[in-house]
Write a structure and sequence with these properties.
Radius of gyration: 48 Å
Structural class: mainly alpha
Strand content: under 5%
Number of helices: 6
Oligomer: single chain
Shape: rod-shaped
Length: 152
């Protein structure tokens, strides 16, 4: 039994020696091939020596990448403007066009009435229809303005 143990130990030691030689031979082969190709062989260095060498070498500058994170802020909508109240002739005009079925924002309707009052029909037609008034409402719009304001 003692001979079996000794023989197993010899086999294990032989296998370990074979592996060690194989690794050493492979390293020597890599060094030989590298020297033959003109490239320096890779040397094993301690981590301190490698760190010291890497800080002293001048490597080509690496580009700097800056990542900008866009942050969307919640924006509160602007408060609605206070409603504008019209009096006198402007109020009468707005009431008249509403009664005739013409729908338009009050501010725009008053501005359009001032702009087209006394202008040619073709100009008034273009201005009012560009603003969204139907063509068949143009004359009614102009008549209501003149009626409410006593002319232009």
């Amino acid at each position: 039994m003692e001979d079996d143990m000794r023989s197993q130990s010899m086999v294990i030691a032989g296998a370990a020696l074979t592996v060690t030689l194989a690794i050493g031979g492979a390293a020597a082969f890599v060094g030989f091939v590298a020297a033959r190709n003109g490239t320096p062989a890779v040397e094993a260095k301690s981590s301190n020596a490698a760190a010291a060498e890497s800080t002293t070498e001048t490597a080509s500058p690496q580009p700097t990448v800056t990542v900008t994170k866009k942050i969307r802020k919640t924006v509160a909508p602007a408060p609605a403007p206070a409603p504008r109240y019209y009096y006198g002739a402007d109020a009468a005009f707005l009431s008249a066009i509403a009664g005739d079925g013409i729908v338009a924002p009050s501010d725009w309707a008053v501005e359009a009435g001032r702009e087209t009052c006394g202008a040619s029909y073709s100009y008034a037609y273009g201005y009012l229809t560009d603003g969204g008034i139907y063509g068949y409402h143009v004359q009614t719009f102009l008549d209501d303005w003149a009626s409410a304001h006593g002319g232009c």
